[in-house]
Amino acid sequence: MARSNGCSNLECKNGVTPGVILIGGGRNSAPLINNGVMQKTGMRWGWIRCTACRPEEKDPPWKPKSLTQEQIDERRRWADAKAAYVEPQQKRLEKIKLKTPDVPTLTPSTEPNAELMRMIEQNDKLMLQISGLTDTVGKLSGQVADLLAENARLRTAPQEPQTALSPPSGSGETPKRRKSRQIAKPS
Ligand SMILES: [Zn+2]
To answer: What ranges make up the beta strands (E) of the chain?
Structure first.
């Protein structure tokens, strides 16, 4: 895609391009970031001077980025929105790798796998134990429900002898039944 101003930077728009800006630290000391030092202080997207068509002496030579049109649009949106800059995970990992060159981070070896397998095995065992415990809990709660039912039955039980003890219980029972039948009848 050819730029109207003939800039070789596809992202360039009238001499400015989406880039990351350091926030904080004063205007003069806050450098435009594309080529600068990444710091942990706040960074955000914004429109910065295009070093392809408006280079200054201090600028390193501009290098074209391999960006898709979608990426370019996205970066432009971020610049418009002054979105907070989040360093890509891949870049961060690369940095960590660079900082610790002696530690082989990505070389696969059998040791971690063996350990992983052991951990998975342990996990499986724990899961089995947990499912066993869940069964026990289920059984116990069943027992508790039984006990509660028993308890309820026992609590209502003492009333039965009381009514049984009262002498007119036998005679009192029959009218009760009649009553309930009368109620049940739709009248
Ligand atoms: Zn430009």
So the answer is: 16-22, 43-49
What is the CB neighbour count within 10 angstroms for residue 45?
Answer: 23
Contacts of residue 17, defined as CB under 8 A and 6 or more positions apart, other chains included, come to 9, 11, 47, 48, 49, 50, 52
The sign of the torsion formed by the CA atoms of 71, 75, 81, 87 equals positive
pLDDT, tens digit, 9 for 90 and up, residues 22-81? 776 444 555 545 555 544 567 899 999 999 999 999 888 999 889 999 999 999 999 999
Check if the beta carbon of residue 16 is closer than 8 Å to that of residue 41. no
Give residues whose Cβ lies within 5 Å of ion ligand 1: 7, 9, 12, 50, 52-53
Q: For residue 144, how far is its CA from the centre of ligand 1 (angstroms)?
A: 77
Per the listing, tokens 């696969």 go with 108
Nearest CA to 45 out of 14, 12, 86, 5 is that of 86
- Residue 15 Cα to ligand 1 midpoint, Å, equals 4
The phi, psi pair for 182, rounded to 5°, reads -65, -40
